[in-house]
Amino acid sequence: MREQHIEKGEVTLVMNTQGPRAGPTLLFLHAGGESRSVWQPVFARMKPKHWQLIAPDLRGHGDSSRAREYVLDDFVADGYEIIRRLKGRPLVLVGSSLGGLMALMLTMQYPLLIDGLVLLDSPTRLSTAAAKWESQKILEGITQQRHLHSHLDPQLASDQLLADILSDPERLSRAAQSVAVPTLFLHGTKSEAVGEIELAGLRQDIPHVEIERIDAGHLIARDNPAAVAEKIAAFVPTLVRDTVH
Fold first, then answer.
1. Which carries the bigger pLDDT value, residue 146 or residue 120?
2. What pTM was computed for the model?
């Protein structure tokens, strides 16, 4: 396991990497209120010898630094800053909740760089209730962060991100409708944020999506890492560079 730091403006992103740098690469983006450590039980069960696994702390989480404001576009820009440094292909984005929203936007904006998508309970049509739930988890993560900076109010940061996401409710659906790469959606059957309505919207936005149900809540990687590892390990070898038409 290697630790790497990326400087991006006022923010320093800290991430773990393991595996060959030129091999097939999976970039794991955690949910709001979590950190890169949530993926360690998943990594331990995958045990790939030829895959590169990367797990960053998102801005304001874990060991990555805070920012003066929090909007989805900045999280997405952080993701691109990581992706542009990667050499391994195929590249698969694995995103949980907020990380999944990032992955959707990245796949829309940089389709030639991404070969596969795995969404962990990240709906393409985010309800107000689900957005508020996510915002609260982000608030908890920022508040618990070990490196505190007096210029930032955690509640303000959480409110900023929630307001930004809800300012354009169709943004995620539009991004999803552009997705042409193989896509796997892992749904927690005990999820507080995603139900049959959200799954129906997902199928409309990404008709080729594969949906697998897992015995877990919304934070699937935390609740059932063994099932997450199993589903991803089965999905990734099926990927080809050709896009879905």
1. 120
2. 0.90
